[in-house]
Amino acid sequence: MGWLFLKVLLVGVSLSGFLYPFVDFYTSGKTRGQKPNFVIILADDMGWGDLGANWAGRKFTPNLDKMASEGMRFVDFHAAASTCSPSRASLLTGRLGLRNGVTHNFAVTSVGGLPLNETTLAEVLQQAGYVTGMIGKWHLGHHSSYHPNFRGFDYYFGIPYSHDMGCTDTPGYNHPPCPACPQSAGPPRNLERDCYTDVALPLYENLSIVEQPVNLNDLAQKYADKATQFIQHASTSGRPFLLYVALAHMHVPLSMTQRPGAPRGQRLYEENLQEMDSLVGQIKDKVDCTAKENTFLWFTGDNGPWAQKCELAGSVGPFVGSWQTRQGGSPAKQTTWEGGHRVPALAYWPGRVPVNVTSTALLSVLDIFPTVVALAQASLPHDRHFDGVDVSEVLFGQSQAGHRVLFHPNSGAAGEFGALQTVRLEHYKAFYVTGGAKACDGSTGPEQHHEPPLIFSLEDDTAEGLPLERGGAEYQAVLPKVRKVLADILQDIANDNVSRVDYTQDPSVTPCCNPLQTACRCHTM
Ligand SMILES: *[C@@H]1O[C@H](CO)[C@@H](O)[C@H](O)[C@H]1NC(C)=O
Ligand SMILES: *[C@@H]1O[C@H](CO)[C@@H](O)[C@H](O)[C@H]1NC(C)=O
Ligand SMILES: *[C@@H]1O[C@H](CO)[C@@H](O)[C@H](O)[C@H]1NC(C)=O
Ligand SMILES: *[C@@H]1O[C@H](CO)[C@@H](O)[C@H](O)[C@H]1NC(C)=O
Fold it and tell me: How many domains would you assign to the chain?
């Protein structure tokens, strides 16, 4: 009786606009009992230091910074791998690559993809009655039943892999620069390494190629339009929705867009960062005007900056991996240094996620799956283990407790793909293997194995510059704990249902609009 009275009182007060919005959520008839919508935006190759709210020197992300002040910003949030396909596979399965099988990238000619007996987040939500859409870079296999439309997404619009994995007529900026697609058949050109030139980059809508080659100059606007249309349709359908937007930004090639009013001489990277920020702003505005109180928006990145792209790569902020840079090579994308996997992360849900809060909880992209499934009142598949956990209490400001332990899989720079040889334990980080990715100067750090491991304390050494002394008391206290958690997870994985990926390649599976046209162009020039 007393509670009911209070509730009536609260409704009265909230209607007059005085009450903290948190209470409004529980009392508003409009949202009560409805399952929440989810929008997950994943940037590509964005640096921790590219987010203005993270790194004072950067000021190219006004929309994201505003989202940070209206929600929660995570400063110790990690991608599940330091390269594209494994990071995305872990986001959509809540499992590390050693379990879901995806330990390295798929190619244009890959026959397989994310194994079919892995259950994606979209499949779980689809079963729970959600309308599901994906826009952007998939990179989990595009051939046959590996296409996103068969992995739980009702709607798909995007390039099925990285937008440097095919030529275009609008090549944009890459390092080395890549030529435009050939217009007509001719003798093979003597092309620089790292450029794809035989097949033009495809753009799909559902199962059809709607453009090949893609015009990169209006891709950002197309993604914004399709995302806002999806939100519009879904929010009038009467069903809750999941929208996963995997941006092409900040991966190379960067586009040629010249925004009106951009300061002269501004770096290309920074202009593209602003373009990405404005794309995210358009999606958030759409959420705000259609489904604000009942939509959870999560923004993060797939891995750190691709340093070998020099001035076309982002900023790692303070996570400069100086132990590695002294050996040579880059400590960013493809490595297990912080610059490789510590990514910007924001959570926005008016009335649920507290405003303008910075969280230092240790969280991971792996947590998105279990958290979203819990909030959707669905259940996790029972016949496998998960590496992420439901962190909704952290998101709602009711707890500060993130992970005690995270494992960072090898992602190309050193060691075997997917192997767990870097361990985060509280504020310590232990490396059994180190190596640098290709740096701007062309150097790659040597692969080095460390037994016993190098251990850094991130609390006072964010740069990962000086390992703890092996003979010291602190090292001796941490080492047995590292050994124990590593042995435990390896044992757990050995007893889990793990999937195998078919990484074979066959040129005939290349997406091709018209095999009779040069570079598979959709139309004759
Ligand atoms: C894509 O598929 C969805 C779900 O089947 C459908 O509603 C939508 O109309 C399709 N869009 C296009 C452009 O084919
Ligand atoms: C967010 O918090 C910071 C520091 O706590 C404060 O300076 C700033 O004014 C706040 N912003 C908003 C929009 O409340
Ligand atoms: C693996 O899958 C089988 C068949 O679905 C199931 O019986 C078993 O419990 C699963 N194992 C684990 C560790 O979940
Ligand atoms: C997937 O299938 C393979 C064999 O086809 C099996 O070994 C594995 O346990 C399955 N994984 C899951 C998660 O069910």
Answer: 1
